[in-house]
């Protein structure tokens, strides 16, 4: 959430490089050690370079290898570092590298060779930790943020632009100060590194509006060599990062996101008390091991931490509601090993590099696989075995849908925010990021105003004073649909009976093995109802068709249909459009778009496999979750089925609507929905699309297909009463 991110408002610098005169001062004193005593000729301080365009990048990797061994003590590169450094010598690079393989060395080593590297980092704590780690090995790096005084900011800045310090970390908000950017341009920036680059993409899991300016910033810096780094970006997000930074002509290097040392598991547990008890038992069985427990809310964090302490476990809470000093103390104790267990919201974690975390537990399901994988991936960074467990209930999905609703304001809300911001902007028209501290829709509102030309993308100043200016909210609508698709992917991970690691890797565009032997399903930890096997070659053909449709429509494959849909198509092999529309995730619109292609593909496969008969029926309208028996195996109706009378006015109205809809489509009424669904509609009387998802038999495809019409019938009945 936006409120969980430290505000990093840019502060004007009193003196800039363009105003500097006289001899260069002595080398900058480092923030945390004796690095300042190193002479300028020594290898860890790069030479002064006047013009970035004339910088000679290393012609081979020998200089980097020497630094790697001498400074860091590493005998060789790992995890894609060699490929990134080699490509960076010739062009811009977008690198997707898994957590724990040393992404930062891909810009630290070039900084030591060519000098003046600016690293854009999203959090104050993150940049401070990284600088302290570098200083500990003698690398002369520094950072500038709003937590240090103006005089010290100026001193660090001047040392950097004069070439005395090769590596400077800043937050993206710093570039809102035009003099800061001009000073860097005049000095000559040799490398611009964008850490956590997924933050620039509205399709990413941690979108930050302040990252949107970085493409324009790069231009104003004179298009320095650019390196964008992230551990979690699917193909769509990668394209967005490259486009927004203006490095689409550069090289994309994608190493596997797989973390073979991690074991993944899901436990189906409904109640909050039961989840806490499960977590307490789990932790007590692993005394002294470092672990992180993620909880959705601040209150939940406090309750979980208290439950652990009551059970004799040393544990502390971490969330944005605690004051900064308290958070710093808790994090420091955890990093040092004095505190084995930390219970946190997602405010904790970005940039946390504790190598010996042996387990990560999620008490609640995140809204996206990227977020889950990033948080779970904080376990086992030392390469040793670690466990990642998600505690799941269907209610988690409803909560996450609520977050999506809150984060995507409608046109009226965006208009109200625009008018309020015009009144609150300062005399130069600048927006304050504190405006968004308590507004989950802030990021999308800023994006809409930027797309409408009402906010400057770099300075974040309003460019109009028209209260009734035209505002384009189509991007918010598209983004909502995207987030809801991502939520479905996350739920599929929790509910799948197949390989969980394989599902993750396919999501990030990789082709995994059929089983991993390192997740609960592959290890046979759960007892499942017997599920018909599907032909893998037919499944592969269906996925190939999906990918072709995705390319032709410029969509992400998961927005065409999901892996679960492909499995059900391969398993039950519908032979008609009616049967196809009943498959989970297809619906009317998708059937009209590519239904005939699917039917032809399936028919052709069956022609060559005459002895392979599909199962007799398809239960996909209401699938079981595939988790432990007796726990969260379906949606429970509000009351028993018998309490809905056939002459209930709403029942009669809904039945009539179903009959007419079926006639208009030339299909049997049961293909619209079953009588049980009709009774559940009467009992629950849903008032919005979110509530419709709780109705038995109304999955995503049916809600998308005719949810609005159902709500109109219910609303008309309620109004009539």
List keywords for this structure.
single chain, globular, 6-stranded parallel β-sheet, 7-stranded parallel β-sheet, 721 residues, disordered N terminus, 43% helix, Rossmann fold, alpha/beta
Give the overall form. globular
What percentage of amino acids are in beta strands? 5-15%
The CATH topology assignment of the largest domain is Rossmann fold
Number of domains: 5
Largest sheet: 7 strands, parallel
Radius of gyration, taken over Cα atoms and rounded to an integer in Å: 28 Å
Distance between the termini: 41 Å
Fraction of residues in H or I helices: 40-55%
What top-tier CATH class of the largest domain fits best?
Alpha Beta
In CATH, the architecture of the largest domain is 3-Layer(aba) Sandwich
Mean of residue pLDDT values? 79
Count of distinct strands: 13
> Reading side by side through the largest sheet, how are the strands ordered?
3-4-2-5-6-1-7
CATH superfamily of the largest domain: P-loop containing nucleotide triphosphate hydrolases
Main structural class = alpha/beta
Word description of this protein:
- The chain is α/β, with parallel strands linked by helices.
- It has helices spanning 62-72, 81-88, 105-114, 124-136, 150-161, 178-187, 214-220, 235-245, 272-284, 298-310, 324-336, 369-376, 394-407, 411-424, 442-451, 474-495, 500-507, 536-553, 557-560, 563-572, 577-581, 587-608, 649-665, 675-684, 689-692, 700-720, and strands at 93-96, 117-120, 141-144, 167-170, 191-194, 225-230, 251-254, 262-268, 290-294, 315-318, 341-344, 357-362, 386-392.
- The strands form two sheets. A seven-stranded parallel sheet has the order 3-4-2-5-6-1-7, with helices on both faces. A six-stranded parallel sheet has the order 8-13-12-9-11-10, sandwiched between helices.
- Helix 18 crosses helix 22 (587-608).
């Amino acid at each position: 959430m936006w409120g969980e991110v430290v505000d990093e408002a840019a502060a004007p610098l009193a003196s800039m490089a363009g105003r500097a005169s006289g001899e260069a001062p002595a080398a900058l004193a480092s923030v945390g050690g004796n690095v300042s005593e190193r002479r300028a000729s020594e290898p860890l301080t790069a030479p002064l370079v006047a013009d970035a365009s004339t910088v000679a990048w290393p012609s081979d990797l020998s200089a980097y290898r020497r630094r790697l061994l001498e400074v860091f003590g590493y005998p060789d590169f790992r995890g894609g570092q060699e490929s990134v450094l080699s490509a960076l010598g010739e062009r811009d690079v977008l690198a997707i590298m898994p957590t724990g393989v040393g992404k930062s060395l891909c810009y630290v080593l070039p900084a030591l060779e060519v000098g003046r590297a600016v690293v854009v980092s999203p959090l104050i704590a993150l940049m401070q930790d990284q600088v302290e780690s570098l200083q500990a090995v003698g690398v002369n790096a520094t950072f500038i943020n709003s937590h240090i005084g103006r005089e010290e900011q100026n001193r660090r800045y001047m040392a950097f632009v004069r070439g005395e310090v090769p590596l400077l970390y800043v937050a993206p908000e710093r570039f809102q100060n035009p003099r800061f950017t001009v000073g860097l341009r005049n000095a000559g920036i040799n490398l611009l590194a964008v850490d956590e680059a997924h933050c620039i993409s509205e399709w990413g899991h941690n979108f930050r509006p302040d990252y949107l300016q970085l493409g324009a910033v790069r231009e104003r810096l004179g298009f320095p060599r650019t390196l964008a780094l992230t551990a979690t970006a699917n193909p769509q997000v990668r394209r967005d990062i490259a486009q927004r930074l203006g490095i689409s002509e550069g090289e994309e290097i994608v190493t596997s996101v797989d973390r073979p040392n991690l074991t993944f598991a899901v436990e189906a547990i409904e109640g909050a008390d039961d989840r806490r008890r499960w977590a307490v038992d789990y932790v007590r069985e692993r005394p002294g091991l470092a672990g992180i427990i993620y909880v959705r809310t601040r209150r939940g964090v406090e309750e979980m931490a208290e439950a652990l302490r009551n059970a004799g476990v040393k544990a502390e809470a971490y969330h944005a509601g605690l004051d900064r000093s308290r958070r710093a103390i808790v994090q420091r104790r955890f990093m040092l090993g004095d505190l084995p267990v930390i219970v946190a919201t997602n405010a904790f974690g970005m940039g946390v590099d504790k190598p010996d975390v042996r387990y990560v537990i999620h008490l609640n399901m995140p809204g996206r696989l990227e977020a889950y994988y990033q948080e779970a991936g904080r376990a086992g960074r030392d390469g040793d075995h670690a466990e990642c467990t998600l505690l799941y209930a269907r209610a988690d999905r409803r909560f996450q849908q609520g977050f999506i609703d809150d984060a995507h304001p409608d046109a009226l809300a965006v208009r109200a925010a625009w008018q309020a911001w015009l009144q609150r902007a300062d005399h130069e028209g600048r927006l304050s990021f504190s405006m968004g501290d308590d507004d989950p829709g802030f990021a999308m509102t800023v994006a809409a105003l930027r797309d409408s030309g009402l906010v400057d993308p770099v300075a974040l100043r309003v460019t109009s004073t028209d209260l009734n200016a035209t505002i384009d909210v189509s991007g918010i609508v598209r983004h909502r649909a995207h987030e809801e698709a991502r939520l479905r992917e996350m739920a599929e991970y929790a509910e799948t009976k197949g390989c969980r690691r394989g599902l993750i890797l396919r999501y990030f565009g990789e082709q995994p093995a059929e089983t991993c032997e390192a997740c609960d399903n592959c290890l046979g930890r759960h007892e499942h109802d017997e599920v018909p096997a599907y032909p893998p070659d037919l499944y592969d053909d269906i996925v190939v068709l999906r990918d072709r449709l995705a390319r032709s429509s410029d969509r992400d494959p998961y927005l065409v249909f999901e892996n679960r849909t492909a499995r059900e198509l391969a398993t039950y092999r519908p032979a008609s459009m009616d049967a196809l529309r009943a498959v989970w995730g297809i619906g009317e619109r998708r059937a009209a778009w590519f239904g005939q292609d699917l039917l032809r593909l399936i028919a052709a496969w069956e022609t060559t496999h005459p002895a392979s008969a599909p199962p007799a029926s398809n239960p996909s309208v209401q699938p079981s979750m595939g988790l432990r028996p007796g726990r969260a195996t379906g949606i429970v109706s509000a009351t028993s089925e018998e309490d809905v009378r056939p002459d209930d006015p709403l029942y009669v109205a809904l039945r009539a609507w179903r009959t007419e809809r079926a006639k208009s489509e030339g299909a049997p009424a049961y293909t619209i929905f079953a009588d049980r669904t009709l009774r559940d509609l009467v009992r629950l009387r849903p008032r919005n699309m979110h509530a419709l998802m709780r109705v038995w038999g109304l999955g995503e495809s049916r809600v998308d297909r005719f949810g609005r019409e159902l709500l109109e019938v219910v609303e008309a009945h309620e109004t009539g009463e």
